[in-house]
Amino acid sequence: MEDHWTVGRVAELADVSVRTLHHYDEVGLVRPSARTAAGYRAYSAGDVERLREVLAYRRLGFGLREVAELVGDSSTDAIAHLRRLRGLVLERRDRADAMVAAIDRELEARAKGLKVTPEEQLEMLGARLYDAIGGAYTTTRRTEPRIAAQIWDALGDARTVLNVGAGTGSYEPADRDVTAVEPSAVMREQRPAGSAPCVAAAAENLPFEDHSFDAAMAVSTVHHWGDPLAGLREMRRVARRVVVLTFDTDEPGWQDRFWLTRDYLPEFATVLGEFPSLAGMADAIGGRAEPVPVPWDCADGLFEAYWRRPGAYLEDHVRRASSVWTRVGPEAEQRAVRSLSDDLGSGRWAERNSDLAGLDAADLGLRLLTA
Q1: How far, CA to CA in Å, does 262 sit from each of 180, 331, 340?
Q2: Could you read off the pLDDT of 260-279 as tens digits, one per residue?
Q3: Is the pTM of this model over 0.70?
Q4: What is the pLDDT of residues 223-237, one digit of tens each?
Q5: Going by C-beta distance under 8 Å and a sequence separation of 6 or more, which residues neighbour residue 311?
């Protein structure tokens, strides 16, 4: 294995120009620290690793000054950079998926001869696209009191609470000293005035000392993390108590618990294809699991919320507030909506799901892990 790489070889491997590498050297961003046998400057393995981080951040749109601050952070190692990069790439993938869905909606509208105004075109494809999606989140995603009571009871007598992957702040207990952690700027900007202070960080690399909090909580967010088990272990490190609302994929036939995924959106299983087992997540924090029933009139518009109100899934703003629909892609979404609409119109849905009519709550796989 090589112990150094020439400037030319690195430029070739990284698909950048030698001039770019020289510029990074001149501004002190990445300086070759090794020497070839002939005395020419070359890159060590550590130099290559730093260059990889620089180029990755650059290709994600960061300016040189921002990149210098990111790679110069002495508290962040290579693994932390990889996790941060993975999270940024996933966020951009979600933005791209959302944009594709917006384009598909406009194509469908134009195919039907519907007029698409300039304002709608700009909202679909311009800077407001992601804000519009986030806006749907705040209009349909809010604290459901019955689920909140179960979460807050699990927090016990904790006074200081860290909310990891906090989003816009749902389920943060008002009677505790809460600190929030949220990596998405879009979500942070939508936190209401007066909400808990929010730190820009990822679950996998929490910027807090061991046992800094009485409790750490995470609500319907673990599936968004780059490395869920690492994030859970971080929660365990910084807090004496851990409470996590998540999803159970251990139970045989879990995909069939909910009629929406069973009959209309089987792609949901693929969305959670790499999701850790419930047992694995419980082991990561040394916790136990208990079911969290979803009320029929659930105020929080999470993916399963409308299990007794199927017509809600035909509403675009309802679907936009759940990442599942973006993850499965526009083709699967449109097929599911079309099939559900047909079945609601024909009465087939009501016939197939008649057993739900008398239920006040349903176990659809939500689980509360407590340690």
Answers
A1: 35, 17, 12
A2: 999 999 998 887 777 899 99
A3: no
A4: 888 889 999 999 999
A5: 344
